[in-house]
Amino acid sequence: MSQAPETTREPVVTPVRVVIGLCLVAPFVAMLWVGSYAKTDPVLIGIPFFYWYQMAWVLISTALTMIAYKLWQRDQRARTAPKGGAEQ
């Protein structure tokens, strides 16, 4: 009886994965730290800071999530790519 070698997939912390985590955590930190934006000044085209800051984070969060997704895709492709070229 031959047994297939056990492959354990341990979580690996890489710089790319740290960047992915930061991209995903940054919007939460920015929105939960209410004291940083609970004010009316500066006003942007008549909109108090409290409102336009939150709306800006909607766009920023979208961009950061997209960056995290693209980095994750690249990381997964790199992990599943054959090592050392084609073997015969």
List the helices and strands and how they pair.
Elements: H1 15-32, H2 49-80
Helix pairs in contact: 1-2
Largest sheet: none
Which bin fits the share of residues in helices?
A: 55-70%
- Low-confidence regions: none
How far apart are the termini?
25 Å
Question: Which outline best applies?
Answer: elongated
Cα-atom Rg, whole angstroms?
A: 21 Å
Strand tally: 0
Instruction: Return the average pLDDT rounded to an integer.
Output: 86
What amount of the residues lies in strands?
A: under 5%
Label the structural class: mainly alpha
One letter per element, helices H and strands E, the order comes to HH
Number of helices: 2
Describe the structure.
- With 88 residues, the chain is mainly α.
- It has a domain at 34-79.
- It contains two helices and no strands.
- The chain has helices at residues 15-32, 49-80.
- The radius of gyration is 21 Å and the shape is elongated.
Summary, kept brief:
It comes from Streptomyces tendae. With 88 residues, the chain is an all-alpha fold.
Defining traits:
88 residues, elongated
